[in-house]
Amino acid sequence: MSRDGFGLDLEGLEDPYTTPVGVDGIKLGEELPRELYRLGRDVKVGNASVEDRALYEKSLSLAQPILKWGPPPPPTYKVPPTIHYILIDRDPNTIPATWIEARESCMGLHPDWEFKFWDRDSAVAFLEREHPWFVETWHGYKHPIQRADSLRYFVLWSFGGVYLDMDLACRRSLDPFRRFDFVAPEAHPVGVSNGFVMSRPQSPFLNRVLSALPYFNHVYISAYPTVMFSTGCTFLSAQLTIYPLPNRDELKVLGGQRNKLSGRVTTPLFRHLGASSWHEGDAGVYSALGAFLKKVPLFGKGGGSVSTPTTATRLPPTSASNNVLTDFPLWSLMSAGMVLACGVAFFVWVRRWRRKRCGLGPVGVVIGGGIIDKKDVV
User: I want to staple 146 with a disulfide (CB 3.0 to 4.6 A). Which of 93, 138, 141, 220 is the partner?
Assistant: First the structure.
């Protein structure tokens, strides 16, 4: 819990989407944010009829539980009211309709915010103008998601605001979190996610993240670990872990199972469509390996697998198999070796970076359950 009494695990927060039926033409269910966007857009451009204007005002009144929530606003906010979207190396005409609907839900719940959309051309122009030292590295990335990952860190450092993945539909206003220097949700199975990140401009933490990007630009056996360790969630989590302790209190993590954006889930803040559009062929292997390891008593919780449903409630683990090791397939053994090799390589790079940047002894970062100190998850 933060010093102002704001519980960032969001436990006990009531779900305002309890009336899925329309009243007087107003949708009170998950469609309400998009309804706010549609009506508000017409009102802003002056195309709304008198009836639509009245409907919009009534919609705003009904939406107060998701627009105005949390503790009283502070005198000043640290994070500017800007939401950034990034679409690199993909034809905008191929964007799924569900992504457009997700974006409209966020625009509906943030009517006074600015929305920035970054494609390859605007990204190149921005980097060449503001961060020319990184342009060569950015173009040299093998996978488009690496360019999208790294760009979000540069954009947030330069402008501040919120970065959102295209497959995140908003369920609440993000205004209450603008009081903090940096916010990201806890990731599955460890670390933090980079699919939703908030930051103030010129964040010292993000400055360290930017300077670390070229150092971690390596190929880690295959596509999935390469992305995760060079620019993705594991990279960001490692930077958070080695960030100096006196300043780490400025970094807020939305803790708790219900805030994790893994797969198709609904959290207090978002409805995650679980697109995973950046996954390549090896992602299925690592996902299957992870699912298998959960059944192994050495790795799993209570010796069983855990189901994560699409609601905020987590199901209990299933009973463990008595012969869990007898059906260990050869491909899982090979994959486990690949993961171990990638982990060792990443561990070495993190340790070297820590010693180089922080002047610390040869104490490495544990890439496991301790990737984030429990006290940092509030």
Answer: 141
Q: Is 199 helix (H, G, I), strand (E, B) or coil?
A: strand
Query: What is residue 149's predicted lDDT score, i.e. its pLDDT?
Result: 97
CB 196 within 8 A of CB 261: yes
* Higher-pLDDT residue of 350, 101: 101
Please answer whether residues 236 and 194 qualify as being in contact, where contact means their C-beta atoms are separated by less than 8 angstroms.
Answer: yes
Residue 278 structure tokens: 């950046």
The Cα–Cα gap between 59 and 32 comes to: 8
Q: What is the pTM of this model?
A: 0.74
Q: Is 299 exposed, middle or buried (0-12, 13-18, 19+ CB in 10 A)?
A: middle
User: How do residues 289-331 score in pLDDT, each as one tens digit?
Assistant: 455 444 544 444 443 332 222 222 222 222 333 222 223 333 3
* Cα separation, 272 vs 277, whole angstroms: 13
Phi, psi of 85 (to 5 degrees): -120, 145
Collapsing DSSP to helix, strand or coil, 364 comes out as coil
Backbone dihedral angles phi then psi of residue 321, each to the nearest 5 degrees:
-80, 140
Q: Are the CB atoms for 169 and 271 separated by under 8 Å?
A: yes
**Which residues does 304 contact at the CB level (< 8 Å), separation at least 6?**
294, 295, 317, 318, 319, 320
Q: How many CB atoms lie within 10 A of CB 73?
A: 12
How far, rounded to the nearest angstrom, does the alpha carbon of residue 65 sit from its chain's CA centroid? 23
Closest CA to 378 of 206, 255, 294: 255
Q: How far is CA 200 from CA 9, 78, 159, 163, 205, in A?
A: 21, 6, 8, 12, 10
pLDDT band at 12 (very low <50, low <70, confident <90, very high): confident
As beta bridge partners, residue 168 has: 272
| Long-range CB contact pairs, 13-16, < 8 A, 24+ | 13/268, 14/65, 15/268, 15/312, 16/65, 16/66, 16/172
DSSP 265: E
Alpha helices in the chain (DSSP H): 32-45, 50-62, 64-67, 97-109, 120-130, 135-140, 144-159, 204-212, 223-230, 233-242, 245-248, 283-293, 330-358
